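Appendix B. Raw example, untouched.
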Amino acid sequence: MTSPDITPGSTEGRFDPALLESLIEAVGAKGCITDADDMLPYITDRRSAQPHVAPVVVRPANTAEVSRVIALCQQAGVSVVPQGGNTGLVEGSVPLRGKTEVVLSLSRMTKILDVDVGNATMTVEAGAVLADVQVAADDAGLLFPLSLAAEGSCRIGGNLSTNAGGTAVVRYGNARDLVLGLEVVLADGRIWDGLRGLRKDNTGYDLKHVFIGTEGTLGVITRVVLKLFPKPKQAVSALVGLSTEQHAASLLTRCQSECGENISSFEYIHRNCLDLVFELIPGGRDPLPEAHDHYVLLQLSSSKTGSDLREALEHVLTAAFEADEVEDATIASSVEQANALWKLREDIPEATRITGTRIGHDVSVPVSRIAEFLERGSELVRDLHPCARLIPFGHMGDGNIHFNMVAEAGMPKDEFLGPEPAIRRGVYDLVQSMSGSFSAEHGIGSLKRDDLKAYRSEVEVDLMRTLKSALDPGNILNPGKVV
């Protein structure tokens, strides 16, 4: 039996003043924003300068208030758009255009509730900023390894709702691998308390995974039990210059063979990315004396004392030099030098944003085929859009590449964006042919909803719709997103 399609939005037109009064009563006057200027940060997506529209932004202070807000909206038949830091790139945390939807921001729910050093866990509210969670873990002598370019503004609830990845996935896994327990408010306002810090718990279905990676369409995450890890006692970073994508892949294989679990990050960077950073962001300096077509930025780390990571890395690089796979490399000799190398990587998304116009793809393929994808994808773009400037970079260690392109200086926006549909279809078809994913870590939102239908089987999409219909029969939670 096929479940019904999920229709975007649930209400249109005028917002009921009685509902607004009830929402204000539920969260207090300071918890509701109705002024158009004050709402802008909550209704403007990073991919579009044109703000969306919402009658109100509701900012509850605790789980009980979230529950009350959702129950009120459910009774009124009004849709709710859950939101963390609003740093997404697929219009998943802003209202749909032409619909009347309440934005539910968790930006007031920021508490670090508990750090259990003996259990290596931390319990936080879903509105906690990722960087604050990292600091709290560090203060306790532990590590929370999720690391993203937006970590100073993104929030844990949003990280979990999109199953965020970042630079440390190769060692620690995605966001879902860093969670032990959740508290979730359901579509009817009920609260599921699954805040358990257990490594082993086979008591029925593992319900937390129903809500991680589903972009707030099945429930609103309000509190989280996170896994912590031993803090690295030493780390070494290096930037490596190479002539081909295949040599970058070969270096990954060497590192995996020689260094194993000590690899914490392995990032691919095309030369165009560094050139763009040097052009648009002050203070950058080329770490190597000559330019190379391709780079790898990698980090080894260990929580053990006595491990000579630098010696291990030098051994790997020497073997790669002798095999003519590496052209040059620099190993950071201080924390400051390492930070400077990583800043270059972190500045790439900001540099692409500054250009104002880009065509972007967040894709993944099996790690064994990442070099092939880069080669074939680059050839595809050169054929379809010879004037585009390729800006590919990303997490080579887990097969995730941000396959982007920007306009050359002076190119009109319409001219640059003209081939975008053909490029997107070509890139996605290539990824599909390589058993990959057209959405690796940024989610589906509303922008990729049609792509989900095109690139996932009817059975898979039907299962998603069945889950949505069962947990949110009124379709009030982030409708029009994902399915």
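End of appendix B.
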